[in-house]
Amino acid sequence: MVLNKIIDIVYSINDFDILIVLISVAVILSIFALDLVRGLSIRLNAFDRPNERSSHQYKVPTLGGLAIGIVWFSILLVHTILFEEHISSYEIYSFMLMGLCILIIGIYDDIKGIKPLYKVFVQLFTFFLLARLDNSLITSFYGLFDIYELDQISSVLFSCFVFIGIVNAVNLVDGIDGLSSSLTLFFIFIFSYLFYLSGQYYYHILLPFASSIIVFLTYNFSNNKKMFLGDTGSLGFGLLIATISLGALNSSKGIDLFMPINPALFVVLCLSYPLLDVVRVFVLRLYKGKSPFQPDRSHLHHILIDK
User: Fold this and answer.
1) Residue 65 in 3-state DSSP?
2) Would you give the DSSP letter of residue 140?
């Protein structure tokens, strides 16, 4: 009898109520998860220790991305159980599996370190999972460079290139407090509004995600409980942004109808900072005869801080 009443309440709530429920769950879980994971990071000796490239002066726990990942998995699970009619459970479970792949490789990289090539292999597998979903890949340039619809092979190859590029671009700009988090929030808010206008319910999970990032920022800028995202978080943010970007440029989704300019150009402009920065850094490193994956202080945020 109690279960029936709970089910009746769930089916009677409106979109605004759903958002309030999911955002509340995200905020509460974020507070507990960040405290627990910070303690775990200290026990595992998972610290970001200052070096010649660092902007901080003392070692900082670096598994903040794990806490955010736990919250995101919880939000996806709650949405699947209570509000399955808005987003298919197959999509949600696929997102969770993709997130799990990135979470595992990120945690390993934060604790022990891993070669960039191995990370790319995992990202390729994650893209394979995304490509199996309907309407998840770029299908058109919408006239940009006089290119319109893409054939299937071109769609898969170009989408894979864009996916890998975005994931690593977001990961590489994570060099100062709040940078990748604020870029991700900017992207989430813009596309949540576009999904809302297009009548698609992805904003139900994007806005709770945003609330968990906002809670994390209070730790990221704290003096007493400071935490970094680590690769776990920055790779996760990259996965989120890449997945949204590819779906937004799929002509079957219809979100392109609500963009103020050419959709392909609009997405590029929203990602202009990380994309331009990573291209600039890679070109400079190759010009100097270095590996493009060799870390240094040539990122824009490093130059601005040094000045």
Assistant:
1) helix
2) B
Distance CA 144, CA 307 (A): 37
- By C-alpha distance, which of 35, 264, 237 is closest to 145? 264
Q: What is the rounded distance in angstroms from the CA atom of residue 170 to the CA atom of residue 275?
A: 8
Residue whose structure tokens are 């893209």: 127
Distance of alpha carbon 88 from the chain centroid = 20
Helix runs in 47-151, H state only: 64-82, 89-111, 116-131
Q: Which parts of the chain sit beneath pLDDT 50?
A: 2-3, 6-7, 9
Query: Hey, what are 199's tokens?
Result: 């009548």
Which residues have C-beta within 8 Å of that of residue 27, sequence separation ≥ 6? 211, 212, 215
Count the residues in the chain.
307
Are 93 and 215 spatial neighbours (Cβ–Cβ below 8 Å)? no
Q: What is the pTM of this model?
A: 0.90
DSSP bridge pairs for 60: 48
pLDDT at 3: 45
Coil, strand or helix at 108: helix
Cβ-proximal residues to 32 (8 Å cutoff; 6+ apart), any chain:
none
Q: What is the pLDDT of residue 162?
A: 95
Beta-bridge partners for 295: none
Four-CA torsion 167, 233, 193, 265, nearest 10 degrees:
-20
Contact 257, 152 (CB under 8 A): no
Which pair of tokens denotes residue 136?
A: 């998840």
Question: Is residue 18 within 8 Å of residue 204, measured between CB atoms?
Answer: yes
